Amino acid sequence: MPDVIATYFFIPDAQTTPDEAAKAICEEETTGTWTEITTRLSYVQRLDGTVESVEPSGEGYITRIHFPAEIFEAGNIPQYLSVVAGNLFGLGRLQAVRLLDVEFPDVLVPFRGPKFGIQGVRRLIGTKRRPHVGTIIKPKVGLTPEDTARVAYQAAIGGVDFIKDDETLTNQPFCPIAERVPAVMKALDEARSETGRQVLYAVNVSARADEIAGRALEAIELGANAVMVDVITAGFSALQALAEEPAIKVPIHVHRTMHAAMTRNPHHGIAMRPIARLVRMLGGDQLHTGTVGGKMGHDTEALLEDNRALTCACFGMKPSFPVASGGLHPGKVYGELHALGTDIVLQAGGGIHGHPDGTAAGARAMRQAVDSYMAGVHAEEYARDHYELERALTLWGTG
Ligand code: CAP
Ligand code: MG
To answer: What is the pTM of this model?
Structure first.
């Protein structure tokens, strides 16, 4: 049976050679510990891991480690992570260690992947090639259900394709799902009667593991046409519970808040790539992966590879829609699309609701910026006869 192959960057401590460090990771995550033991029996050896390679890389080394597939309980994601991303991060013999990527054999991927994927979401919205424009209801928290619906209506008539709750809004008393969802969906129906366009609203259903599927079903019964989960804080199993619930027949938008605690340090933690692979395997239809010019830190080359992990042909799964979000506004659209391509969701919260003429104008400005890119016209030129875009570029520029 093929192995699971994990790739790590590491910096050994002063007393440890690179080979000893790689061996320590391998043993800790398979059948070893810090010392020889009297209870080891010869037949356990079939589960020993192997170090395939250790190569110098920058301030440290990169190693590929093979874990026998038999160690993994097929379909049990928490257990997979306990092996490839477990105790190793705390090993004293390593100054730093980062999980860069992980490859699973088919036998350990009994998951169906995204129900909708890029083409499925495009069919719901009615697009073929152009990037989708999304927005996040802002302020993050605090609006009443009625005012949330009012902001959603303005974004919809302005031309967004997708609206989501922010990552910290769930079911607080000031804006309960039972009131927020009907109000927003009524507003989107009104917008649709004016524009003829379907807009998805992703309700943040992040909750306790034993409540999340029920909360999603409640939101869908109330009319929600998409759901959202904060996959790091709620857990990968929460995403799996949503994706594998047959009655949940709407796209799943995956937010990654808390990811930067693991992904940001280039020497220690977990890179975005393994996270992206897991989210796609487990059924995320859309996933935030970052921007090339937004407010969060970014590494364009790594981001392109992370997006490829979402969209490449693998396991016969549908591709997940990469989401570029965080500090975006109409002046940044060209740079994002030029770098990332058009099979992308461009999301703007402040970049739409901060438009001087309000949310609908902000949405129009984002759509105009996308249309200018698709027409091969620079935004500044396009803005000459597109007032909302011109106002946005005057306020925020194009940098
Ligand atoms: C963006 C956002 C998203 C970030 C998350 C926020 O709002 O709603 O959560 O995009 O970052 O709360 O910051 P703005 P990432 O458009 O107003 O910045 O997508 O990198 O996970
Ligand atoms: Mg947010």
So the answer is: 0.97
